[in-house]
Each structure stands twice: as structure tokens, then as C-alpha cells.
UniProtKB/TrEMBL annotation, chain A:
One of the record's GO cellular component terms: nucleus
TM regions (residue ranges): none
Protein's UniProt keywords contain DNA-binding: no
UniProt-recorded name of the protein: Nicotinamide-nucleotide adenylyltransferase
Entry keyword set: ATP-binding, Magnesium, NAD, Nucleotide-binding, Nucleotidyltransferase, Nucleus, Phosphoprotein, Pyridine nucleotide biosynthesis, Transferase, Zinc
Organism the protein comes from: Zosterops hypoxanthus
Entry's localization field: Nucleus
Annotated pathway: Cofactor biosynthesis; NAD(+) biosynthesis; NAD(+) from nicotinamide D-ribonucleotide: step 1/1; Cofactor biosynthesis; NAD(+) biosynthesis; deamido-NAD(+) from nicotinate D-ribonucleotide: step 1/1
NCBIfam families (UniProt xref): nicotinate (nicotinamide) nucleotide adenylyltransferase (TIGR00482)
Family: Belongs to the eukaryotic NMN adenylyltransferase family.
Ranges for region Disordered: 124-143
TrEMBL record, chain B:
UniProt gene name: Nmnat3
Record pathway: Cofactor biosynthesis; NAD(+) biosynthesis; NAD(+) from nicotinamide D-ribonucleotide: step 1/1; Cofactor biosynthesis; NAD(+) biosynthesis; deamido-NAD(+) from nicotinate D-ribonucleotide: step 1/1
Chief localization: nucleus
Gene Ontology terms: cellular component: mitochondrion; nucleus
Cofactor: Mg(2+); Zn(2+)
EC number: 2.7.7.1, 2.7.7.18
Name used for this protein in its record: Nicotinamide-nucleotide adenylyltransferase
Domain of life assignment: Eukaryota
Family to which the UniProt record says this protein belongs: Belongs to the eukaryotic NMN adenylyltransferase family.
Amino acid sequence: DPDGKTEVVLLACGSFNPITNMHLRLFELAKDHLHETGKYKVIKGIISPVGDAYKKKGLISANHRVTMAKLATKNSDWVEVDDWESCQSEWLETLKVLRYHHQKLLSADVTNSVQDAVPITKLGRKRKQESNRHEPVKKKNQSPVVKSVPQVKLLCGSDMLESFGIPNLWKLEDITEIVEKHGLVCISRAGNNAQKFIYESDLLWRHKNNIHLVEEWITNDISSTKIRRALRRGQSIRYLVPEAVRAYIERQRLYGPEGEDRNAGLLLAPLQKHASEPGAHGLHN
Amino acid sequence: VRMRSRIPVILLSCGSFNPTTNMHMRLFELARDHLHQTGQYQVIEGIMSPVSDKYGKKGLVSARHRVAMARLALETSDWIRVDPWESEQNTWTETVKVLRHHYEEALRAFQSQEFMKNKYPTGSSTADSLSCQQPVLPELKLLCGADFLQTFKTPNLWKEEDIKEIVEKFGLVCVSRAGSDPSQFIQESDLLSEFQHNIFLVREWIQNEISATQIRSALCRGLSVKYLIPDSVIAYIAQHNVYTAESECRNKGHLLQPLRPQNTPINPLRD
């Protein structure tokens, strides 16, 4: 942007089953943190609910999860929901979702550039320049049409970071590309293991400048699992999820006892996929 | 088989509400669920009672704002309301006096309701026909967090007779975090042990420790508090510029009203 700050889009992937105030807080904490470094400007937040093919136990239909996420973000002026991932018939690796959104920004950027371009270079050449721009652009002889594409960073909690260590859940090359080419913003509770986890992995350590750890001082343990549990037991979830989400769950009678048995006994999609794939999975060392 | 009537309960929460957070409101929801699950109670109302400005706590903004914010926060609730009575008093009011006031109000409402029912019997409700001839008087219970319970130990803060009246005549519903367990604290006090049947301990398994102090601190630093307090309260704070570096300095160096010499009780809680 004109101040020389790198523009960032925060992408959160997950079940959002259902979305809670804690999920929404992640965005707020991440944005505040990145802004306070003075180097970044967060321009958008994207919530990308996982597709039904993920086969996680208790995962209700994507239609509901996307609708609830949209209800939850209707009062936000910068966080939105993208349902591309949820519409795919097969489960998609997180990296693919990152790449998709990055590509989307690239195309949008080229379109914008073309629109206000002074035709100096050919379209093809400009596009090639931009696709290699991952570093923040320094303010020197920039023609008005060429600007760096915003970075898409994966927003997550420390549980996702530590899931890099679960055998067969992630492909090593995917983790590498995520931390190398995109970046991670990881929110965790004070006194957590995230720093230690990064220290203990050569790969993560090498890219630690691209892994932003944000400490959440206000303990906020509103996990979707607990929300579903409370609902099964007829307990109130008010003030833990946005009111519109609570009302939707009530109207649609979601998360009754049967809901939790969905996909019971099935293997999580990435585990199933990677079990039969050659190549390195997860972090070793 | 005759259906046993549940005892109607009103929950009263006293505090600064500076500002009201999602956690303040969660306490009500947790307490209500807990009492309902005992099978013996029916929570009919929740009352939020912001403390008067005379309390003298550091950073306490004017009651006018605190009541307005509580009202906004409770817009979506159909059973909890804010009552400004305590905040409108000229002096700081002991918690036990606030309890007495609201109990008298509740009794009055109950009695006029019974009077109307007897004068104009409608015979509509099954509950009425099944319940025993004596209608059940409502009970008023003080809703609080475990930290509030702990303040009973603070020297000079409470009069022993007040604590006794609270746990004997009214009752306490105390919500605590997953990790902490106030039952030991209760066991260590003869007074509290005697009335432990009237002290309801509720475990909050979904941790949500949104302290108002942290909220004010975040606001002063220009950090986001969205999803920790209601949007309507955030908008109000911005519109009226409620929390600033100056407001945080209010009452700085002053002693809390209950601790001031004229209020010092002779026998603090000592077991």
C-alpha cells in the first residue's frame, strides 16, 4: 500500500461446526497484532468452512455451516465467508485453498491494474512479474499500475500448528510451501507450547519470520465441541456465539444427539488420502 | 401423582459492570441451567444491578453510562434486565441491602399477583390447579463468580452478619472456572459450611474469562474487543468516548467506599 506496508489477507480454514465467538476473535487478534508491527495492513479476512468430504465426526452439512458463518460475519466490515472449499466434492488440502485464494487475488489485481493502466508493458509480462512478488515491495520507481499482490496468510490456533506433527495428516511439502510462500498467523493462549513446537522443528524454525505468534491474554476457550455438547444437554450457548447463529441453530434444530454420530468410525479424509500416498508426511525431527 | 411445584428463583448480580461483558451475561445463563437441572427451581428473572458511583473504584465511569451499556447488552435477553435502583442511591449500598430491596419488590409483585389471581380466578394454567394450595414464594439469590466469594475473606470488607444474612436468608449461586473449586473455601469457613445447602456451585467448563479490566485496557490501546462484549456496547463506548486514559485514573488513590473508616465493621469474617 502507499505507506510501504505489505497488504495481508487472513484465511481461516476449519470445520466451523458451529462458528463461535472464539473463531471471530482470532481475526481481531491477528489484525491488531499485524498492525502493531507497523509492517502490515490487513485488508480482508476470509472464513473458509471445510467440505463435507472431510468426514470429521459430528460434522453437519456445509450448507448450515456456511450459513451460520455468514450470519456471524454480517456485522463485520472486513471478515467474509467464502464457500468455494465447501462446494468441492472431494476434500481439499489446506494448501490448495491457500493457493486458490492467492490466485484469486492475483487475477483481481491484474484486472484492476489493466483498468487503470497506462499501457506501457504487455499484459503477459506484467502478470509474470506479479506472480513472483511475494516479498513486500520497496518504494522505488514503482509505476502506478504495478503493485505487490497482498499476501494470504493462514490464520489458526496453536492446535492447528501442532497438528503438523500428527502422522499422515499433512504432507511435508505442503507445510513447507505454507510457511515459505504464504505464512502463518497463530493465536495461542498465554503459556502455550507454540514457541517450543517451532523451536523443535528445523523447517518451522527456518521460516519463523513468516510465522507470527500472537498471544491471547483473555482466556477464551469457546470450542465448537463444547458448544455442541452444551446443545445436546439442553444448555444455553448464549453470548458464546453470535445471537443470529444461536437463533439459527434453534430454528433449524441443529446439533441434537444424533448429529454427533455422523461419520463415526470413519477415517478423516486427509488420513485416508495420505495413508496410500508415497512421500513424506508431517514433521520429523 | 401430584406435580411438585418448582421454587421460583430470581437471580441478582451486583457489580461494577464497567463495562458489561459477554462473561457477565454468561453467568446468568449458567446459573439458570444449573438451577433448572436440580429439578427444584424455576428461574423466573435475572437482575443486573450496577454499583453506584460512590463505590469509588478506580476507573469506574459514571453510572449513567454503565446502566445504558448494560441495557444495550441485555436487549436480546428475554429474562434478564438491568435495575438502576442501586446506582441511583446517594451513598454506596451494602450488597445485603440491595438484596433486601429487590426481595421486597419481588414479594410485593408476587402478592399483588396472588391477590389478582384469587380475585379473578382464570383457572387456565395447569400448574395452578396441580400445585398445592399454598403458592410458592419466590427466592432471591445472589449470583456471583468465585472471586466474589473469596472477598468474604478480605479484612474489613464485609460485616459478618451481612454474610450470614446473604447465605441464610437469600442464597448464593457461585460460578467458577473449570480449574478452580470453591468448595474448599466453603469448608474452611464455619459460617459458609453451615449454609452450604444454600450455596450453589456452578462449574463453567467453557472458559471465557473476559475481565472488564482487560476490556478497558484493550480499548485504551486501540485494540479490538469485538466478540467479547456486544456490538451495541462497543458502538456506545465509541459514540460517548466512555473509556479513556483519564477515565481510568478516576478514584485513583482513593479507598473503596466499604473500606472507609465509617464503614469498617467490628467483626470481619474470621473462623
